[in-house]
Specification:
The protein is an alpha+beta fold and 776 residues long. It folds into five domains: 85 residues, Penicillin-binding protein 2a (Domain 2); 176 residues, Orthogonal Bundle (Penicillin binding protein transpeptidase fold), CATH 1.10.3810.10; 182 residues, 3-Layer(aba) Sandwich (Beta-lactamase); 94 residues, OB fold (Dihydrolipoamide Acetyltransferase, E2P) (Beta Barrel), CATH 2.40.50.140; 88 residues, no CATH class. The chain has 22 helices and 31 strands. Strand 10 and strand 11 form a beta hairpin. Helix 3 packs across helix 4, helix 7 crosses helix 8 and helix 14 packs across helix 20. The longest helix has 21 residues.
Length: 776
């Protein structure tokens, strides 16, 4: 016999993430069931169990007499008979079935020991609320293991087999307590407990601590993703009946921080854009509790935001609200001030259904006015070393449905730029190489494309470091033109990004669609030293016998013997298969430059965290998508914010304003109290102090220097003599004047005199102009 069992999904620390089962059952061997639990069921169901041979003739005759003499039905089934009925027979009430039950009970007694029969019984009986077996009931009603149950708790669940619905302590607490007290008396009569223990236990309230099956509430999108993986790989029966043990890469403390950061960030955005009105309106308040109870059920998945309540009365300084449990609370004017609507009566009326959240989680009647954010967001955190997914928030709300961390493919904006710069580093550029930041026009037949910088300003020849730190669009386009979009696309593919066009320069500014998971994992290549690792979610899957069905990455010989089946002992992180996406030197140069984004650029607010961080903001046209993807030496983290149906987030809602605060809150809580570690520097890297503006060696005209990273042999040799940003020319196409495009072959790039410059072009702007138009 193989009973239906619960499949449990664990995080990397052995904490339960989710449970899946048609029946909640925890199978416990007889020798692990505490003796007092056994005694409670013997007292309740079969006091002569160890004396009879499957049936109790005296009890049967007594029951028959009661049934004939009165209208009351009395049962006389022994524990063995109940085993025969539940395992081998139907539940129909006929004399034929009863005779079969007696015969089978006698045979069971011949084939099994008393302890084996008790094991079958105690693990099979239905005890209400979807719980089968005593261990499952202990978890459901008291959130305890069998060994932790108290005397009154044991008596309560022992009294339930006779009528699980009638004695359900959740629905009928008074009936459950009365039945419990009867069992306590029987325990005393059988000599299992003393009279004093009996009275003390009877005086104890039920004190339930309900613990239903965990459905992944702390990590809804991750849990659902794992459920789908197991369902696809092993089938529905394996998932819901075979009791698999699934070890994942998730870290629940990290996940909880991620969920909270996304919620707070979306809430802040939503409040910036004002009050949108009530969820619904009740026509009458006569039966408000019944009405709000039904409505609140529809918003139960939004518990993090608050709960649906009904406005009962609007005053000058506060609003009285009604809750689904019939209690009332109050929203003070100051706790609704964020709406910007003025007097409470101007936007709230009696009967309005709104969201509200307790000000104090420990109690009190004070609430804040909330609303369901219309905007959505996602966050992913990946272990840099292993590629294991530590946290995944696929949106605000329940996990069933659309997972925005994986399924949403959105334009990435400027968060794509590091790939262009990385391709340049691979080609031989340095962070101190210069590219022209000036207007440029691309004509395609009768169409033209005129990219521009966010601030509509131009800085002339500018170092790559400054270009990425300040997210200069025009520099990025020129750089992509020189490096070649084919090279950028090939690098992106090696970093796990697919489908990058090879001829469209607008892709350099992020007009390509990618998922947050893909972008976050691609960024992990930089601190990992240029190595790509596929993101992983599962570590190991075992069947109910502890046999390993799957182990991530490497074949596992004799896994069961080595690892056992204990969820308290998750396996060591697996060895990771990988491939080189770029050289370690190019990866480090990018890591170093992207640290500058945080120290001096668009990610500056993260510098207050006081630890090495690299990253890049991303904002798409008309503020439709906001991104921040960044990394520390140990974790790559990505955040996206936007509407499910793409539309503008509003003017000024950039990646730095909308997505980065979510990243910051998460990182601040994640790394609080942890040691500060630096990025490792590979062999072949040297550091040279250069002029911050020209990228050359400091000279008399230098007013600011920076210690720059170079691949050995590529540092500048010429000293800066000054700056000239005024070179202008007349564009032959008849447009306005524009700065000279001074790169080799018209690319707009210049390494500066004294630097090794890819492409081998001259630094003479007139000569390059002539080359551009094919004059010579």
């Amino acid at each position: 016999y193989k009973p239906p069992l619960i499949t449990r999904v664990y995080d990397r620390n052995g904490e339960i993430v989710a449970e899946y089962a048609n029946e909640r059952r925890i199978w416990v061997p007889y020798n692990e069931i505490p003796k007092p639990v056994v005694q409670a069921y013997l007292a309740a169901e079969d006091t002569h169990f160890f004396e009879h041979s499957g049936y109790d003739l005296k009890a049967i005759l007594r029951a028959m007499l009661v049934n004939v003499m009165t209208d009351r039905k009395q049962g006389a089934s022994t524990i063995t008979q109940q085993v025969a009925k539940t395992y081998l027979l139907s539940s129909e009430r006929t004399y034929t079935r009863k005779i079969k039950e007696l015969i089978l009970s006698w045979r069971i007694e011949k084939a099994y020991t008393k302890s084996e029969i008790l094991e079958l019984y105690l693990n099979r009986i239905y005890l209400g609320n979807g719980s089968y077996g005593v261990a499952a009931a202990a978890q459901t009603y008291f959130s305890k293991s069998l060994s932790e149950l108290t005397l009154p708790e044991r008596a309560m669940i022992a009294g339930m087999p006779q009528a699980p619905t009638r004695y359900n302590p959740v629905r009928n607490p008074s009936a459950a307590k009365a039945r419990r007290d009867i069992i306590l008396v029987r325990l005393r009569e059988e000599g299992f407990i003393t009279p004093e223990e009996t009275e003390a236990a009877r005086a104890t309230p039920l004190a339930l601590n309900i613990s239903p099956l965990k459905r992944g509430e702390d990590a809804p999108h991750f849990a659902e993703y794992i459920r789908q993986m197991i369902l696809k790989q092993y089938g529905e029966k394996a998932l819901y009946q075979d009791g698999l043990t699934v070890y994942t890469t998730l870290d629940l403390p990290t996940q909880r921080r991620a969920e909270e950061a996304v919620y707070q960030g979306l809430r802040a955005y939503d409040r910036r854009h004002g009050w949108r009105g009530p969820l619904a309106k009740l026509k009458t308040l006569d039966d408000w509790q019944e009405q709000i109870e039904k409505i609140a059920e529809n918003y139960s998945h939004s518990w993090r935001i608050g709960e649906a309540v009904v406005v009962l009365k609007v005053g000058t300084d506060n609003v009285r609200i009604g809750l689904s449990d019939g209690s009332t609370g109050m929203i003070a004017a100051k706790d609704a001030k964020w709406t910007g609507k003025g007097a409470l009566s101007s936007y709230l009326k009696a009967g309005d259904v709104v969201m509200a959240k307790p000000l104090n989680s420990k109690g009190g009647d004070g609430y804040s006015l909330e609303q369901l954010p219309a905007v959505q967001g996602a966050l992913v955190a990946i272990d840099v070393k292993t590629g294991e997914v530590l946290a995944m928030v696929g949106g605000l709300g329940e996990g069933v449905g659309f997972n925005r961390a994986i399924m949403a493919r959105r334009q990435v904006g400027s968060s794509f730029k590091p790939l262009v710069y990385a391709a340049a580093m691979e080609k031989g550029y340095t962070p101190a190489s210069t590219v022209l930041d000036a207007p440029i026009v691309f004509r395609f037949g009768d169409k033209e494309w005129k990219p521009h910088n966010y601030d509509k300003k131009f800085t002339g020849l500018t170092t790559l470091r400054t270009g990425l730190e300040q997210s200069r669009n025009l520099m990025t386009v020129r750089l992509a033109q020189d490096v070649g979009m084919r090279q950028v696309a090939e690098l992106g593919k090696r970093m796990g990004l697919k489908g990058i066009p090879t001829t469209d320069l607008s892709v350099a500014l992020g007009s390509v669609d990618e998922s947050l998971m893909e972008m976050t994992n691609a960024y992990a290549v930089f601190p990992r030293g240029g190595t790509y690792v596929e993101p992983t979610y599962l570590r190991r899957v075992q069947d109910s016998a502890g046999v390993t069905l799957f182990r991530a990455h490497t074949p596992c010989e004799n896994c069961s013997a080595q690892l056992g089946a204990s969820p308290e002992q998750p396996p060591e992180p697996p060895k990771v298969p990988s491939r080189e996406a770029m050289s370690p030197q190019a990866a480090y140069l990018m890591t170093n430059v992207m640290q500058g984004v945080v120290l001096r650029g668009t990610g500056y607010s993260l510098s207050s965290l006081g630890r090495p961080i690299g990253g890049k903001t991303g904002t798409t046209n008309d503020y439709v998508d906001a991104w921040f993807v960044g990394f520390t030496p140990s974790v790559s983290i990505g955040v996206w914010v936007g509407f499910d149906t793409p539309k503008s987030l509003g003017h000024g809602e950039t990646g730095g304003r909308t997505a980065l605060p979510i990243w910051k809150q998460f990182a601040e809580n994640q790394f609080k109290g942890t040691p500060i570690e630096g990025f490792s520097v590979p062999a072949g890297i040297e550091f040279v102090r250069v002029d911050a503006k020209s990228g050359l060696l400091p000279g008399a005209a230098t007013d600011k220097t920076i210690t720059e990273a170079f691949v050995e042999g590529t540092a500048p040799t010429q000293v800066t003599t000054g700056y000239d940003d005024s070179g202008m020319e007349i564009w032959s196409g008849g447009d306005t004047e524009r700065p000279v495009d001074a790169g080799s072959g018209g690319s707009g790039s210049s390494g500066g005199s004294g630097q090794s410059q890819p492409g081998g072009g001259s630094a003479n702007p007139i000569e390059n102009l002539l080359r551009t138009f094919g004059i010579y």
